[in-house]
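Protein Entry — a single chain follows
Fields — amino acid sequence, structure tokens
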Amino acid sequence: MRYLVCLFVGLIAGALLASIASSARARRHAWPRSLMTVMQHDLVDARAAARSGQCKEPANADAAARLRLLAGDLERALLPAGTNDRVLSQYAGDMRATLAKWDTGADCARQTEALTAVANACDACHRDYR
């Protein structure tokens, strides 16, 4: 009976420790995941607004500002400290250049084109790094 109790306590302790380790490992990648999630959310909302003819909304300008701000942190979020990846830096630079070309004051057709270019810049990086 004593061995059965020890076995049961060992299984419970092992399960708890495995859960803690799994949680810690998942948190290590929280910043890159959250950065990509926010960028995707803003891009999807801006594209939907441009397609529906509501591209002059202040929300689109806010989304553009957020996307430009977050694009500045891509390398820092995705690469370990002190490392450099030439290809990722090129993709991040392309993303920043594409976002700089997005004029939130333009008509909806031009904004749709600009947002398609932004989505293509996202897809180009995701082809290699996802």
Notes: The radius of gyration is 22 Å.
